[in-house]
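Batch job 17 of 40 flagged for manual review because the log was empty.
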Amino acid sequence: MMDLKTALKTTPKYMKILEKNWILTVKDFLQYFPRAYEDRSTIRNLNELLFNEKGITATKWHIISKSIFMRGGKRIYDIKFLDPAGNKWYITIFNSGFLASKIQEDKRYIIVGKPNIKFGKTTFSHPDIVETEAPETPEIALDSKIETKEIYNSGRIFPIYSELMGIKPGWFAEKMRWLMDKIDAIFSEYLPSEFIHKFNLIGVQETIKEMHYPTSFQKQKQANLRIFFDRLLRIQLYSMINRNTYQQNKTNMENEIINREIIKNVVNTLPFELTMAQKKVIKHITENIHEPKPMLRLLQGDVGSGKTVVAAASAYYTYKKFWGQSVFLAPLEVLAHQHYKTLAKLLLPLGLRVELLTWSITKGQKDKIKQELAEWRIHVLIGTHAILQDDVIFKKLQFVVIDEQHKFGVKQRAFFKQFGAPHILQMSATPIPRSMALAFFGEFDVSIIDEMPIGRKPIITKVISEKEYIKLKPRILDHIKKGQKVFIVTPLIEESEKMEELKAATTEFEEAKILFPELKEKIGLLHGKMKPKDKEEIMQEFKTGKICLLVSTTVIEVGVDIPDATIMIIKNADRFWLSQLHQLRWRIWRSDIQSYCFLETKSKTDESKKRLGAMEETNDGFKLAELDLQNRGAGEILGTIQSWESDIPMEILTNLKFLEQIQEWAKRLLEKYPNLEWLPGLKKYLEEKMGDVLA
């Protein structure tokens, strides 16, 4: 196969850009699809165009004059034309001598752009100008039998690509056209014919062609469907292969009788009553533990819904029934510490030894914990990535809890598999809509805790202006006098803008000190640039009351448990996703005291008002996640989870029937071809996209 540099005839600079974006082969290049399309199939004369509406014009023009002048610091090119009917037209081009120089006498051009009237002249700002050797009349030019030098970018539906680190969309369009005749040799069909017929799909070769240069918008839609179908199918196959691979080991527990008295014992020690949702999930987990295959279950529930208690009861059951060890894996040290305190309080009185393993403890402590863990003297271990080390050995590991599951992946599960494939419970406080859970988490059975502990009062949420925020001062001081605490949260706009985040937080911190001089040294600052030790110190001061008002970035989104924090002000709330706002406000719903969340915004748009208004109307995280899905797409909710797949459009991602059909047929496929041994094309396709999943 021809190498990419030879095929594209391009510069080393462009090759480096492509390589940085994992475009290494001609096949990779042909899978860089357009972001949009322009209908350039209808060519009209200038006098037929609608002003301020994108149009395409073609005629034989005679240049009368070219002139250059400056206006507002910009170089402006005025080009006067005479059309075949004797009408004079003006094309004005701003700051582009290159475009202006392309237009020459006695040449025929196609211009794509929005015409408008400026200073009495027809003006195109930054038009796409295409020279063509086609005959004079548009009717003849559109005759498919006549070849023209640059017909690829006119007279058809034209692809618009995303700019890639300085590589312009037009460059991609031109290069893709060159490679169209290579598609049949590079791509081959990998789906069984029964799939093609069942879902009324077009072939893969036709799909690639129609994605780049569609013969019609209907065909492009069919090509899009095939692309997204393939993505969803491979996620399902990948998930199912992972599940089957993990569950190859039998647990040898299926003959044991469920001892419900063990669960009653732990439940009776709790200082509160479990919700029906919690009891239901514990029942499902207990039943899973007795099945012949290791459990793979995803537990969803809002912050404060009691997921940790469910996991603790299940760990206790595992120990009392099978003498099995349990491990709780958390992404952040502060969250690991919080789990340790909760679990130790619950399980130590019941006779289980609980220990904490993180990077910050001393080498001597680590060595002692590792030795006692291997000797089965530790029954429950809580920790961070520090657990995932070669010298961490479990004597009888049977139950794994992974908190904030999107921070971990298949590799982390593979670490635990070496200890006999223990049961895995993955927990998420980020509500994931049912359709997305089906599409992206096919390897897990899903449980949801959709009730809050008895006695919790719903958070009162209100959208406020900057002026209304200042008027909150008396209320804030009143709550602080009662021993309660307050969060002021500033947004992180983009991941790449860490310094902007720090600047915004620091500015807000200084403004808070001016607004609340009465609090003096009782105002604290927390942000992502701080060292873990300093973060922990600030949080301890906030917990103990040395600090009563904490200005923070979104680092508090995970892992902070401050029961007496009752007010949260989120600045520039319109910059957050609804799911993120919901996650943040749950930080103040940790007790039976009435809590208040104020969403400050400077935005006055109807869209912003409607979106933030949803936060006032509901405390249901799943409803808000659905709205995020509609407004911003799957990628915003999933974050880095399957980020290579999360641009699937709403009409597909919310079509539960379609998703269920794909899942069902993926199961049938693996039942018929367990290792895809008779489908080498599909096996190769999966491995190209997701690594050697069948290893």
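Reviewer: the log was empty due to a logging misconfiguration, but the result itself is present. The chain has four domains: 42-155, 187-246+655-695, 260-449, 460-618. Unflagging and moving on to job 18.
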